[in-house]
Amino acid sequence: MHFNKLLKYLLLSSSLYAVNANSAQIFNECIQPGQVALTFDDGPDKIQTPKLLDYLKAENIKATFFVNGKNFGNIENSTDTQEIIRRQISEGHEVGSHTFFHKPCFIAYEEGSLKENIERLEKDLKEVINFTPRFFRPPQGQGGFSEEYCKKIQIDYDPRTEIIRGILSGDGYKYGSDYGDYDYDIILWNADSEDWKCDGKDITIDHVMESLEYSMGPDKADPSTNSFILLMHDVKNYTVDVVVPTVVKTIREKGYNIVPLSECIGRSPYRENLNTITKVNTSHEIQDSSSYKDNIFKILIFTFSSVVISIMFNLFY
Prior knowledge:
Its cofactor is Co(2+). Keywords: Carbohydrate metabolism, Hydrolase, Membrane, Metal-binding, Signal, Transmembrane, Transmembrane helix. The protein is α/β, with parallel strands linked by helices. It is 46% helix and 11% strand. The protein contains eleven helices and eleven strands.
């Protein structure tokens, strides 16, 4: 009888840990200081994205691309778009969701198209690269920024944020039975290049560097204490030709290491290989694990030891 209770307790503990290990989170910086993750939104573009991939390959940099299904390319009927995404994967980059139509999440939710924007791109990416993304960047950041963060950067907070967060992290049943168990990690940023404003004439690289100095300047950040997720766009010629090389050079000169987003936040980029995730604990330290099963085994041992000690204490005291 005591053994049955103990077994139930162990199984319950391990199952609770499993839920914890895979629960969705929200990130706008890396876990370890001194790291920078390069992220690119809105592509692929059949001209600019391949040029960027050539540069990243030459510099031995791995980036994360938050792609759209239909924006500058069309994943459903363009072989160019499909091949670019396959190339991103084959060259060691990571692919995340930026929704199918790049429609801001508040608008999509209100008009009833959020489910399609999420699931249509999931389906297409599964067909093209055989992976379902776990990283999700909401267009314009809608649904990502907390009330506290909005106060910090002095923008209005929208209460619909909690609805979008809930849907993306797997609690969509609270807002409608049609939403799936998405379990996304929401990826924001804490360094915005504002490269989308640059035309190379009136607004140039100087604007980008001013924007980055706002968050990464020597009076505000240091590699020994700070880390960054950097937002750029792979669909603009000026970004690929001028902004990215300049930004990469500056980041390295400041003493930061450029790492893949998965290393930056310690999470698997795809749902299909969650058995080899890196667990992030509540103190924002990384706990490396060779496999999910190893973690479960450790938890079982720890829980078993705790229960045995508790039983012995009750017997003798």
